[in-house]
From TrEMBL:
PANTHER family listed in its UniProt record: ARAC-FAMILY TRANSCRIPTIONAL REGULATOR, RIGHT ORIGIN-BINDING PROTEIN
Stored SUPFAM superfamilies: Homeodomain-like
Name of the protein in question: AraC-like DNA-binding protein
Superkingdom, natural source: Bacteria
């Protein structure tokens, strides 16, 4: 049941690794060991979009990031991503983002970038992951202290959600929100990792948040449907597991870290929890960073 989810995820990985090259369904299918027709059919069945459309949306989104982050000419970026002319690139860009590439390069604004698809996730396939638990050798969660300066957080705070899964099940559009925040990644608070989730506390109730931390001097536009809040400086206890294989070990790693994070007594390190105005953060970048839960603390007098 899960084999094709994993195979389509490999297709997604292949596409993203070759966006600036001429995409070839035949070449990809040969590397994966299946016919082009079968690859194309399974991709559409599992993602709800054609492989061709996915490639197009990812190319135009990657091109947008280069417009934002480099001084490359619009024409050069258009050619790099396979557009026949600057005019063709402009038409495609306006269709996707309702702004010309030249205008966006001059004055970037939040736009709904197409994010990398995820069709095989242990969030969705916990049964298979539980079956593999006996073969996983986890590292214990390490604990360290990290200072995060005063900053702004742009995102969504949902009082009725307590987890990543329930947050997206509450009607928030994952692709749209993640794509919009990805277009703002150049404003990420220095030292932080970009899009961040976590928990907040309001009127005695715990909710879930998703967004991006930015510097206090950020005064740019706030995407529709999001808020911007100022978060005070604080020390955080960081409960951390180093990089791991997402497809194999994600659920087990998260449980290992969270079991420690939610049951730890900070007094053993001379601290007490300082949640309230401040909020907990959840960093989830399996292959590059690992997984961590951050809880704000203050020194015990």
């Amino acid at each position: 049941m899960y084999e094709w989810n994993e195979m389509v995820q490999l297709m997604v990985d292949w596409v993203d690794a070759n966006l600036s090259e001429t995409q070839s369904l035949l070449k990809m299918s040969e590397q994966l060991g299946y016919s082009p027709y079968y690859c194309s059919r399974q991709f559409s069945e599992l993602t709800g979009m054609t492989l061709r459309d996915y490639i197009w949306t990812r190319k135009i989104s990657r091109a947008a990031l280069e417009l934002r982050d480099t001084d490359e000419r619009v024409l050069d970026i258009a050619v790099k991503y396979g557009f026949s002319s600057q005019e063709a690139f402009t038409r495609a860009f306006v269709k996707a983002f309702q702004i010309t590439p030249a205008a966006f390069q001059k004055e970037p604004r939040p736009i709904p970038l197409a994010i990398r698809l995820e069709v095989f996730s242990p969030y969705h396939y916990l049964i298979k992951e539980r079956d593999k638990m006996s073969n996983i050798h986890l590292q214990p969660a390490t604990i360290k202290v990290e200072f995060i300066p005063k900053h702004k957080f742009i995102g969504i705070w949902d009082k009725s959600a307590q987890s990543y899964g329930s947050f997206w099940e509450n009607g928030h559009n994952c692709d749209e929100i993640s794509g919009m925040l990805e277009s703002m990644s150049n404003h990420t608070l220095p030292g932080q990792l970009g899009q961040t989730a976590g928990w907040f506390y309001q009127d005695g109730q715990k909710g879930y948040l998703y967004g991006i931390p930015v510097s206090t001097d950020y005064d740019g536009p706030i995407p529709v449907g999001m808020e911007c809040k100022v978060i005070p400086e604080s020390e955080y206890l960081v409960f951390f597991h180093p990089p791991f294989d997402y497809l194999k070990d994600n659920g087990a790693v998260m449980r290992t870290v969270e079991d420690v994070a939610w049951n730890f007594d900070p007094r053993s390190m001379g601290y007490e929890w300082d949640e309230g105005v401040k909020q907990d953060y959840q960093r989830h970048f399996p292959e590059g960073y690992g997984y961590a839960v951050l809880r704000p603390v203050t020194k015990i007098d």
